[in-house]
Amino acid sequence: MLVDRALACGLEVTVLDIAASVAAHPRDDARLIPVDFDDEAAMGATFAEIAGGQGGRIDALVSLIGFTNDPAPVGEVPLGQWDAVQQGNLRAVFVACRAALPWLEASGAGSIVLVSSGQGVRPVPGFAPYGVAKAGLIALGRSLALEHAPVVRTNMVAPGAVRTAFLAGGTGREARAGASIEDKASRYGAAIPMGRIAEPLDVVDPVLFLLGPGARFINGETLHVNGGGLMT
Fold it and tell me: Is residue 102 predicted with pLDDT exceeding 60?
């Protein structure tokens, strides 16, 4: 949805994702590059390749990386799962931002939007690894906003529940056992003042707003998109 909307706005789009997700979602209207987010040198080379194919420019970076853990109290979370969630949700974003920053700075008006979560502000029992990683993402974004303005702006979007494959574990991972996406959407939506969970476009449009000139004086902010389920 974000790629479709960005293309409709006339943007040139490159998508970086793990190989499994790239293979599962082919398209011919945007460049797709499978990457290893753990490999800092390879990520740097990838961003240089992207810039080379775009006249030496990268103007914006959006991070949509994210997957959660199997529900468990903090005292019962396996260390390996804790590490995997931190690495996938926080470290990978850090590596991507570092690789993109030289190009964003060279553009003269770069913009970063990191997609965090309401759980980064209000934890949910059983999901400490994910909440901690998303809180770290907000702190990372604020640090980038302080250190790289005014040349590069950085902001965060923190959605609540969204009707996507993430509710079942994410597109690049095995679906978690339990209720279907629709069952979860109905249950979560009942607790939201707007009466439903977010649709993808409810999050995509705020991301594009923060990237663009209409947000030219917004920097270091976290925009909560949750239908009133969390008010800050």
Answer: yes
Q: Are 120 and 134 in contact (CB under 8 A)?
A: yes
Question: What's the distance, Cα to Cα, between the start and end of the chain in Å?
Answer: 27
* pLDDT at residue 186 in the model: 83
Range of the domain at 174: 2-225
Structure tokens at 181: 């996406």
Q: Look at residue 205 and tell me if it is in a domain.
A: yes
Q: Which residues contact 218 (CB under 8 A, 6 or more apart)?
A: 153, 155, 210
> In the chain, how many domains are there?
1
- Reduced to 3 states (helix: H, G, I; strand: E, B; else coil), residue 140 is helix
**pLDDT digit string (tens) for 140-195?**
999 999 999 999 999 999 999 898 877 765 555 555 555 677 877 888 888 899 99
The sign of the dihedral angle between the CA atoms of 113, 14, 132, 149 is negative
> How many C-beta atoms surround the C-beta of residue 171 within 10 A?
16
130 classed as catalytic = yes
Distance CA 160, CA 55 (A): 37
Q: What is the pLDDT of residues 205-219, one digit of tens each?
A: 999 999 999 999 999
Query: Which of the following is catalytic: 130, 133, 142, 225?
Result: 130
Q: pTM of the prediction?
A: 0.91
Domain with residue 195: its CATH number is: 3.40.50.720
| Tokens matching residue 118 | 């309401």
